[in-house]
Amino acid sequence: MNRSDHDTFWKLYDRQARGPIDRACRSASRIKTDSTMDPDDMVAWVDSRVWTMLEKDAYPTFHDDPTPQEAVNRLVRHAPTLARWAYMALCRAHFRRLENRSEYLGGMSRAERLSMASSVDTKIEKREQLNAAIDSLRKSLSAGEKQKLAASWIEREDRNRVALVLGATRREDDRMITKVSAEVMNENTVQQMRSRARRRAQQVLDSAKRAPVWLLAAVAAVTVTLGASVAEAGEQTGGRRGMSPHTADATVLCRGGPLVPGEQTGGRGPKP
Fold first, then answer.
1. In the chain, which end has fewer C-beta atoms inside a 10 angstrom radius, N or C?
2. CB–CB of 263/115 below 8 Å?
3. Which domain does 49 fall in, by range?
4. Buried b / exposed e across 84-116, counting CB within 10 Å, b at 16+?
5. Which residues face 252 on adjacent strands?
6. 8 A C-beta contact, residue 181 and residue 187
7. CA torsion angle for 131, 136, 139, 142 (degrees, to 10)?
8. Are residues 156 and 232 in the same domain?
9. How many domains does the chain have?
């Protein structure tokens, strides 16, 4: 495929292939792992694999110089195969994480387990781990890497929130996010930026044995919730200031958001 056709391919990929691939990954997660493997991680792996094959004109999709539409049709047709590849690539780390979580929960008392937020797979075993992961990224990523990671975040509506969490709040960071969101940049350039930024961020987290990159989406969601509730917190507590975003990040145990007060205190509700 000619490099000039890459933009057309990625636009077709987003419109036609992403849905079937997402459904195939969710099905594979449900069948092979009882829905404990995160389908979003599987989809991200497939995206990275497709980008690599495209850059290298590699078999089995791009080896014979197909048109963008032909390549997308192949990916749609073989979405279950791509999902199976993603499962095979991620399963070792996934089941090791489940085993570690099981051992962690096995050492807790029944009261401690009941006081925790329930989730199929939280991917976090201690609340402090989230703050440590964020600190690792803030300290280890350069300003340019933070900018590229936020600007190329696949969910457009989360880009500004991810930038806030990473500390990418310069004017040039805002300009880059606006430029990418307005689709004035070459699509292939954005895909390369996303792949390299995510790989660099995951290297930082892996070296520090921290949480996976996808957790930034959860942190971003919590940041927005806190921003909207600071004033309410002051009214409810007689004027005391609400938690800072950095402190509140540690209250997240899963993508569902912060724990409710009753769960944090072993079942006691908040004081009136």
1. C
2. yes
3. 3-114
4. bbbbebbeeebeebeeebeeeeeeeeeeeeebb
5. 258
6. no
7. -130
8. yes
9. 2
